[in-house]
């Protein structure tokens, strides 16, 4: 990341035409404009988690799976993942995304489950790799409390934002500092208790920016099963699925624009009309 | 204060740390169980060096003989909670017989519902607190999740403090047992009533004079 010559941070008059943006916006941004008819087709979603059970009926296959581990030199290494899911968390998240955006691609990047030691560098290595792959959406239903990783995570979150990758991260509902959900370049998600998977609310009182379905959610579970559970971990993939829908219908949107669209079509802002 | 004097003061401060630590762990699970009206509560603490979770305390249903049992740090629901740092509530664990059996082997008790929350002290994760089989409510309340988080936070602060005290005691024990008697005397003095204490102090001053003679 950061290769190539530094661009000039100014806009000479002759360059204005070069950056002209076609105004494809409707008079009013509605939910129908944003996602109606969208299936997630053409969108690549990354599940940065504990792996994904690819043959789970609710997951419907994955288009790629890698595992991140620490190499002999202590640096993270990315390799093919043949193990699937180590604890069930990633499969649960992938199942939610698949239910909302049935035609999206799902790519698993396993950063959890290889043990507690070294989990921070593995998480950073996995996120860095995922950003380099240019995924449209990265689902992070996890966070770290280690301040030593906060600065690098912040840089990675900003890099994703500038590279048009939507980073969707679980907020913490405990009174502790954790990352990356607190960074403004990500879409942070808490839970609401409505039973509607497409219902989501904009929070005018950040740092949590959106609330999505996270209570009593039916989840894909280990061994092909299904279970009901509650947690911000499950609100996040709901938001990732909705992002995938918007992205599949409006692939040109930058993360900044997409976040604006989400605000405009949230249930407590523009509503369902 | 001389080095020995300092050691004695620290030793007095950490006396009884192990007993207090066990009491604290038991109190955490007892209170967690009581807050939610649950059938049981248990606590796993992380052994970072071994990369394992250790089953430390249980309240209510569950096998006390399993206390001390170890599991890999990232397996099962406790491991899930630890590695994601996120609280989790599952209402119907028995839908997954394989997992239910795994939990049963760990705790000697098969719960239907489980609330699992990480114990986070500042930037470290100390372990996982679980509340098993609270009464099923028609609608799960997000307030319950908030309450669980708040209580886990308080428990983690106390556990962190206690763990520091135990480390101080371990460091002192490693230095040598000479100050132990001084620490015990200091602790005994602290427990005396005002009148007894002033008499004990006169006795100690006399002892000091003899020792220095």
Radius of gyration of chain A: 18 Å
Helical proportion of chain A, percent range:
25-40%
Number of domains of chain A: 1
Overall shape of chain A: it is globular
- Detail the poorly predicted runs of chain A: none
Structural class determined from secondary elements of chain A = alpha/beta
* SS-derived structural category of chain B: alpha+beta
Report the CATH topology name of chain A: Rossmann fold
Q: Which word captures the global form of chain B?
A: elongated
Per CATH, which architecture of chain A? Answer: 3-Layer(aba) Sandwich
Summary?
The complex is a heterodimer of chains A (273) and B (213). By secondary structure, chain A is α/β, with parallel strands linked by helices. Chain A is 27% helix and 21% strand.
Characterization of the model:
The complex is a heterodimer of chains A (273) and B (213). Chain A has helices at residues 31-35, 89-100, 119-132, 150-162, 232-249, 255-265, and strands at 44-49, 64-70, 76-80, 105-110, 137-140, 166-170, 187-192, 200-202, 210-213, 217-221, 225-230. With 273 residues, chain A is of the alpha/beta class. With 213 residues, chain B is of the alpha+beta class. Chain B has a single domain (19-169), classed as GAF domain (Beta-Lactamase, 2-Layer Sandwich). Chain B has a 6-stranded antiparallel sheet, sandwiched between helices. In chain B, α1 packs antiparallel against α5, α1 packs across α6 and α2 (17-36) packs antiparallel against α5. The A-B interface holds A 50, 86-89, 112-117, 119, 141-147, 170, 172-178, 191-193, 215-216, 221-223, 225-233 and B 46, 48, 51, 72-76, 79-80, 82-93, 95-96, 98-99, 117-118, 120, 122-125, 139-142, 145-146, 149-150, 152-153.
């Amino acid at each position: 990341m950061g290769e190539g010559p530094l661009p000039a941070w100014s806009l000479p008059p002759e360059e204005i035409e070069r950056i002209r943006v076609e105004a494809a916006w409707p008079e009013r941004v509605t939910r129908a404009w944003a996602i109606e008819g969208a299936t997630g087709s053409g969108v690549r979603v990354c599940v940065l988690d504990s792996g994904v059970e690819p043959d789970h009926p609710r997951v419907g296959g994955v288009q790629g799976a890698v595992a991140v581990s620490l190499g002999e030199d202590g640096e993270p290494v990315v390799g093919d993942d043949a193990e699937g899911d180590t604890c069930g968390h990633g499969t649960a998240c992938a199942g939610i995304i698949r239910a909302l955006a049935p035609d999206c691609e799902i790519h698993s990047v396993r950063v959890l489950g290889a043990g507690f030691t070294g989990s921070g560098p593995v998480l950073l290595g996995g996120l860095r790799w995922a950003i380099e792959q240019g995924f449209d959406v990265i689902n992070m239903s996890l966070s770290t409390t280690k301040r030593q990783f906060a600065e690098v995570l912040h840089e990675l979150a900003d890099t994703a934002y500038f590279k048009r990758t939507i980073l969707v991260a679980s907020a913490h509902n405990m009174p502790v500092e954790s990352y990356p959900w607190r960074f403004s370049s990500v879409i942070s998600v808490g839970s609401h208790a409505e039973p509607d998977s497409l219902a989501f609310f904009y929070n005018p009182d950040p740092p949590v920016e959106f609330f999505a379905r996270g209570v009593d959610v039916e989840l894909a579970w280990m061994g092909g099963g299904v279970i009901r559970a509650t947690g911000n971990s499950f609100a996040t993939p709901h938001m990732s699925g909705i992002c995938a829908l918007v992205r599949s219908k409006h692939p040109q949107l930058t993360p900044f624009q997409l976040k604006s669209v989400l605000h405009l079509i949230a249930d407590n802002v523009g509503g369902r009309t | 204060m001389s080095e020995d004097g300092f050691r004695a003061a620290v030793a007095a401060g950490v006396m009884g740390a192990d007993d207090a630590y066990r009491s604290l762990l038991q109190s955490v699970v007892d209170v967690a169980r009581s807050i939610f009206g649950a059938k049981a509560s248990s606590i796993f603490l992380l052994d970072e060096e071994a990369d394992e979770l250790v089953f430390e305390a249980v309240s209510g249903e569950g096998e006390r003989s399993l206390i001390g049992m170890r599991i890999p740090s990232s397996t099962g629901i406790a491991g899930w909670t630890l590695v994601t740092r996120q609280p989790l509530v599952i209402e119907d664990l028995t839908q997954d017989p394989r997992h239910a059996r795994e939990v049963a082997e760990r705790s000697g008790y098969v719960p239907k519902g489980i609330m699992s929350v990480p114990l986070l002290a500042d930037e470290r994760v100390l372990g996982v607190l679980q509340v098993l089989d609270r009464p099923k409510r028609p609608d799960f309340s997000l307030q319950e999740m908030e309450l669980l988080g708040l209580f886990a936070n308080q428990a983690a602060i106390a556990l962190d403090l206690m763990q520091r005290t135990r480390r101080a005691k371990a460091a002192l024990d490693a230095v040598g047992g000479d100050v132990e008697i001084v620490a015990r005397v200091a602790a005994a003095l602290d427990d005396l009533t005002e009148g007894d204490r002033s008499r004990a102090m006169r006795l100690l001053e006399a002892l000091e004079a003899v020792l220095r003679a």
